[in-house]
Known about the structure:
alpha/beta
Amino acid sequence: MMSDIFKNKSVLVTGGTGTFGKAFIKTVLKKFSPKKLIVLSRDELKQYELSQEIKEKDYPMIRYFIGDVRDRNRMHRALLDVDIVVHAAAMKHVPASEYNPTECIATNVIGAQNVIDAAIFNKVKLVLALSTDKAANPINLYGASKLCSDKLFVAANNLAGKNKTKFSVVRYG
């Protein structure tokens, strides 16, 4: 049963203050019973605004964690004692990605690898990475970077070794 997947688990959402992240967090709080729900985002203003809407006093299992998937060390710290990661962080704006290609690659590709490495190191049970329909037949850097990210997450199942971290990718778009 899907509701059992989050029950008494520590769940971390990268990109937790983005459109998908916020909706996902609200759904998990409403329908499931996580032990801990960690909102990871590099945007302190969005974190503050979300913390005013979803207060720790009302939801004692929620935690707000400032961090960037591009920061390898921060990912290792963020994923400590986490059971499930929902990786929604990405640079998604097509024109911004085209104009700032190194930033797009740093977030969508290197950031994905940082999440993978930290998940394996910390023995996370499940990593669910969000993809996009633009990765199916990429015609721009955003789609190509997400295709690369998808390939990294799928290949990570071979890297996990004995610790059995499972990696999955779902298309959202």
